[in-house]
Amino acid sequence: xxxxxxxxxxxxxxxxxxxxxxxxxxxxxxxxxxxxxxxxxxxxxxxxxxxxxxxxxxxxxxxxxxxxxxxxxxxxxx
Amino acid sequence: xxxxxxxxxxxxxxxxxxxxxxxxxxxxxxxxxxxxxxxxxxxxxxxxxxxxxxxxxxxxxxxxxxxxxxxxxxxxxxxxxxxxxxxxxxxxxxxxxxxxxxxxxxxxxxxxxxxxxxxxxxxxxxxxxxxxxxxxxxxx
Lengths: 78, 140
Known about the structure:
The complex is a heterodimer.
Chain A lengths: L9 E6 L12 E4 L6 H9 L5 H7 L15 E4 L1
Antiparallel strand pairs in A: 2-3
Chain B lengths: L1 H21 L11 E8 L14 E2 L5 E8 L2 E11 L3 E12 L5 E8 L7 E9 L2 E10 L1
Parallel strand pairs in B: 2-8
Antiparallel strand pairs in B: 1-3, 3-6, 4-5, 4-7, 7-8
């Protein structure tokens, strides 16, 4: 039996407490998975699908078209 | 024979007294940071709570673990995710600062773009290098 390859596993973390080891400005990260859309992420993260633009605006450098995001992309959640 | 037994007994009693004086290693201070809960699921709310607690996942799922802590002071939380016979899937850590009485929740998540292999997995949560919680979960 082949040993599974976990080298492409993506991970992240966030906390309700201030982070000591991170220099981020308090935003969280989210790794896109198959089937995701910005509105679906917004609904899940903020409870309102209309908030998708906040995510789009925070990730303009990596999202060219808000209708096209890809599994594996790491997005900042403001 | 008797003269040899007395010193041995004295040593044993002293050792027992010393052990009792040390006591359990918890409660170093009333506000020492401690892990109070570990939950797993597929979805996270905006205030970092598991929306659908489960230990059963599908290959395409993002897997979340939320660690709840209480206390005051800095703490390093770490997760070690393993598959079947202890094959390491991922290791992550995060140092946080707890400042109040409110419980603090810290989430760790993992995903695999080409899907998780089915089987049994194990999560170990460590607080400052010491195991503070464990969870078994399965991908079906």
